[in-house]
Amino acid sequence: xxxxxxxxxxxxxxxxxxxxxxxxxxxxxxxxxxxxxxxxxxxxxxxxxxxxxxxxxxxxxxxxxxxxxxxxxxxxxxxxxxxxxxxxxxxxxxxxxxxxxxxxxxxxxxxxxxxxxxxxxxxxxxxxxxxxxxxxxxxxxxxxxxxxxxxxxxxxxxxxxxxxxxxxxxxxxxxxxxxxxxxxxxxxxxxxxxxxxxxxxxxxxxxxxxxxxxxxxxxxxxxxxxxxxxxxxxxxxxxxxxxxxxxxxxxxxxxxxxxxxxxxxxxxxxxxxxxxxxxxxxxxxxxxx
Length: 289
What we know:
This protein is of the alpha/beta class. It is built from 11 helices and 11 strands. The strands form 3 sheets. The chain has a 6-stranded parallel beta sheet, with helices on both faces. Strands 1-4-3 form a 3-stranded mixed beta sheet, with no helix packed on it. Residues 281-289 have low confidence and may be disordered.
């Protein structure tokens, strides 16, 4: 871990990343890709120590309120957040100035800030997005080794449901030859249905690989799945998109379940919903059908 003073914190689309790098250890993480220009080791998390100050200044300058987002590149609830509390301080600023908030995480540490999530959601709206990839707990510990497992994340979604916080699930990646099964898909969808999530984001049944994350992914395949790297190189070569051979059948099942239960599943629709700001949000899991 190291500290840095950032020059800015909000992107043009009102996204922010208080940390850069990650210690979750997910073997497929796209944020490892060299194209992002990270100048330090991925596990040596950079803490943007002045992020709350920059955010407060940015929110005070804004002419109109909106949804603030975090977690697109690095989880805002890394273990160091327990002591650094940059995400919590950011939520407090959003609550103070009347902005909405949405975040993406795999961590149950998000429950620490339930008081602020509820307060923001009472004043405007707050949406928690949770990534679920692997129903099997033992396999989850291999693919996502240093973060709470899928079962615990599902419990978090249920708590958020009971507290009136809307949720969205990221169902990705689905790794070819590893977790691209009907059993895995339906298990995750059952968790989503129980938690009454508003929508599920999926960008195809597969994984994307490029320089930086490909090498790390293949290293972990050699470590945990002997022979799997050779299977990937035979099937996909150097392709960026590595689609599961079961993609069509899995996608049909995914769409069928979402339609049957009124869950959003089209990415554009979900992103439009996530960015929609309102002054008086009821806190209920909205349905667009």
